[in-house]
Amino acid sequence: MHYEQSDLQSLIKSIKSYNPNTDVDEITRAYGYMVRAHEGQFRNSGEPYAIHPMAVAKILASLNMDDATIIAGLFHDVVEDTEITYEDLEYLFSKEIADLVDGVTKLKQIKFKTKKDNQAENLKKMILAMAKDIRVIIIKLSDRLHNMRTLEYMTREKQIEKANEVLEIYAPLAHRLGMSTIKWELEDLSLKYLEPNIYQDIVNKINETRQQRESQIQNIIRQFQDELEKYNIKAEIFGRPKSVFSIYKKMYKKHLAFEEIKDLSAIRVIVNKESECYDVLGIAHRFFRPIPNTFKDYIATPKPNMYQSLHTTILAHDGRTYEIQIRTWEMHKTSEYGIAAHWKYKEGTTNKKSKYDSKLAWLREIMDWQKDYTDSKEFMDLFKEEFANDEVFVYSPKGDVMDLPSGSTPIDFAYKVHSAVGNKCVGAKVDGKIVPLTYKLKTGNVVEILTNPNSGPSKDWLKIVKSSQAKTKIKQWFKKEQRTENIVSGRDMLEKEVAKMGYSFNELLKREWLEEIASKLSFSSIDDLYAAIGYGSTRVTQVIPKLKEYHKDYYETDQVVNKPNHVDFVNEEPKESGVVIDGIDNVEIKLAKCCNPIPGDEIVGYITRGRGISVHRRDCSNVKSVNDKDRLITVRWGNNLINHNYQVELQIISFSNVGYLADITKVISECKLNIKTFNTRTNKDKTVTINIILEISSSSQIDTVIARIKNIKGTIDVFRVNS
Question: Coiled-coil segments, which residues (predicted)?
C-alpha cells in the first residue's frame, strides 16, 4: 500500500540522518515481514495494526537507536499477537533481535494494576530485564509513548489505569535513563487523562501568553547573542518552554496560581567545547544580573542520569528572571536522549555497551537492595524515592562529589562513601562544624564523617536516612551481626501480635504453617523469617493475614454440604477417633483441633465438605456459630476406648515465681502424661501465661492434672482451652 512505502521511506531517511551505514535492505525486509504478520489486525482506532509498530520504530529512530533495536521495535508485538515465534525471528533475522523481542514480550506480560505484592514483584522483573539489556526498556518506553499518544480510543477506566502506570513507573524510568524528551511527553499525556480540566486550563493559559512570552525571549536571545559575538564565541541560543506537567507540579506543590509562575521558559546556550560553557557563564553574569544561590554546576558534578549542564538564573534588562542552561552539543544530545545517545552504530560495535554503561551503576544498586525487601509497599516506596528528581550534591573533604536524594543526612553520605564508614559512623562535621546525624544536607556542603571502630548502626537510623542504599546497608548489618537477637526479637514481635488478637500461640503459630509462609516469602527456614521480622525487612502484618488464612481453613466449620441420603448399617464399632455415629458407616471421622474433645465431653458431629465428620465439644464456640443446625449430627463416644490417645490444651496463669515451670513439669510427669508443646509469655502485669498441649487417654487424667496444678504455689488459674 502507498502509506506503507511512504512510512518506510520516512523511517529509513530518519535512520540515515545519524547512521549512514544502516542496512537499508534489512530494515526493508523486516518492515515487510512485520506488515504481513499483522495483516488483518486493527487497533481500537480502526487503523491497521501495523501503524503501531511502525510508530514505535520511528520513535526509536528519533532516539538514534541501532538497527537491531529498530527492527525489534517493528517486531515487538509479533510473538505475542501472531503465529511468529522466537525461533522464527532467530532463524530469519538474528538471535540479538529475537532476544530483544523476547525481552519486550515478557515485559508486556507484566501487569502493574494488581495489588501491591504483585506490583512490586512485577517491578523487580522489569528491573531484571533492564539489567540484561537496557534496550529492552527503551523499546518498551517507545511502545508506551505511542500508546499514550493514542489513548483517546481506550475506555475511561483504561485511560486512568495506563496514565497512573506511566507516572508511577515509566516516566521515572525515562528520567533515570536521562531520556527527557520521552519523560516530558509521557508526563504531559498522563496529566491530560488524569486531570483533563486542569491540563486544558494550563494549556489554554500557556497559549494565551505564548506570543508575548516568545517575543520577550527572542529579545533576550538577540541581546545575548550579540554579546557573545564580541568574544568570538559561536553558540546556538534558543528558548525552551516548560512542560505542562512541570508547571502543574509547581502550581500545586507551591500553591501558586498560573500567573505567579515566572519561569515558564528557559534559555539554552549550546557551544562546541566544555571550556566555552564556563566562558559563556562569566559573560552572562557580567551582561545580566545573576540571582544569588542559583548557580549549579552539573558539568563538574553530572546527575546520575548523565545530565550535564551549567544552570544559572539571571535578572534580564526587561526586569524578568530567566534560567539559562549552558552545555555542549554532546551534553545536549545526552540531556535529550540519555542512555539511548550512547549506543555504538559503527560496524562491528552494535550491541556493545559504551563507556557510559558505568553510568548504570544505580541499576545494579537496585538489583542489590531489592533482594532485601520482601515488604512490597516498602519496595515500591524505595523505587519511587530512588527515581525521584530531587537531589543534593555534597563534597567529601578530599573534594569528591556525592549525589544523594534530597533530604539526606550525614548517615546517608557515610554509606555512600562505604558501608564500613556508615557502620562505624558516630558523628559528622558539615562545613567544619559538628552537626547532629539528623541534619539535612544541602548542595555544596562539605561533609566529614567521624567514626569509632567499636561502634555500630542504630535501628533508629532507619527512620532518619533517606537513601535506599543506606537503608539496605543498615538492614544488612543487623541481619548479619545480630542474627540470634533478631530471631528472638522477631518471634517475640509475632507472638505479641498473636496474643493481642486473642489467639493462643498453639492455635495460630503452628510450625507447618510458619514453614510454608517462610518458603512463600523466600526464606529457607522459620528462623530466617523471625530474623527478617527482627531486623525490619519483613513486617509482622505480612505474616499475620497468612496465618489467619491457614487458621480459617484448618478450623473451618461453617461449610455447606449435603447430609448422606442413605444408611448402610448401624456402626457399633468406634472409629480410630473413638467416636461412634449411629446409622452411618464408611465416613472419615476427625476430632476438631479447635476444641480437642476427649472422652467424657459432650460432643456433636459436623458434616464437612469432602473431609468427613468433624467432632466438636458441644460448648465449642465454632459449633455455637453454625447457622444451619441441620449440618450438626448426633455422635457418641464408643464403649471400647482402650489405647486411644487425645490431645488437650491447658492454659495456666501464674505469678512469675522461681522454679514454677519445674513444678508444673514435675506434676505432669508424675501423672504420666506426655507434653506435646509448651509456650510461655510474660504479661504486662508481670504475670505469666503458659499454654501446654498434653496427650491423655481419659478425662479423669485431665481433671487430676488440673487439680494438682491449682495446688502449686503461684498458680492464679488453670483451665482447659476452648476455641
Answer: none
Instruction: Point out which residues pair with 605 in neighbouring strands.
Output: 615, 633
Q: What is the DSSP letter of 107?
A: H
Percentage of the chain lying above the pLDDT 90 cut: 26
Annotation marks residue 80 as catalytic: yes
Among the listed residues 336, 309, 296, 323, the one whose alpha carbon sits nearest the alpha carbon of residue 242: 323
**Coil, strand or helix at 239:** strand
Of 39, 47, 80, 236, catalytic: 80
Helix (H) or strand (E) holding 653: strand 646-654
Residue 126 grid cell:
522489569
Q: Are 443 and 394 in contact (CB under 8 A)?
A: yes
Whether 128 and 367 have beta carbons less than 8 Å apart is answered as yes
| CA distance linking residue 337 with residue 63, whole number of Å | 6
Catalytic residue, chosen from 23, 81, 195, 492, is 81
What one-character DSSP code corresponds to residue 341? G
Nearest residue to 57 via CA among 42, 69, 49, 43: 69
653 forms beta bridges with: 689, 717
Residue whose grid cell is 512463600 = 520
Domains defined for the chain, CATH in brackets:
2-194 (1.10.3210.10), 207-341 (3.30.460.10), 360-469 (3.10.20.30), 482-555 (no CATH), 556-642 (no CATH), 646-720 (3.30.70.260)
> 3-state DSSP helix/strand/coil percent for the chain, to nearest 5?
50, 15, 35
- Alpha helices per DSSP H over 426-539: 468-481, 483-500, 505-508, 511-520, 526-535
Helix (H) or strand (E) holding 78: helix 78-81
Mean local confidence (pLDDT), 50-71: 93
pTM beyond cutoff 0.70: no
CA nearest neighbour of 185 among 147, 222, 216: 147
Give the separation between CA 603 and CA 407, rounded to whole angstroms.
Answer: 64
Q: Which grid cell is 259? A: 500567573
Question: Is 585 a catalytic site residue?
Answer: no
In total, the chain counts a number of residues equal to 723
466-475, 501-510, 525-534, 649-658: segment of lowest average pLDDT: 501-510
CA 90 – CA 339 distance, rounded (Å):
26
Residue given cell 550535564 in the structure block: 308
Q: What is the reported pLDDT for 566?
A: 32
pLDDT higher than threshold 60 for residue 442? yes
Beta carbons of 360 and 366 less than 8 angstroms apart: no
Least-confidence region, from 82-91, 303-312, 325-334, 494-503: 494-503
**Per-residue pLDDT tens over the stretch 255-278:** 888 877 777 778 999 999 999 999
pLDDT at 487: 83
Per-residue pLDDT, 53: 94
Query: For residue range 69-98, what is the model confidence (pLDDT) as tens digits?
Result: 999 999 999 988 888 888 999 999 999 999
The letter for the amino acid at 334 is T
Distance CA(221)–CA(170), nearest Å, equals: 35
What pLDDT, on the 0 to 100 scale, is given for residue 193?
A: 94
pLDDT in tens, 115-145: 444 555 556 666 666 667 788 889 999 999 9
Helix, strand, or coil (residue 487): helix
Can you tell me the mean pLDDT for 395-411?
Answer: 84
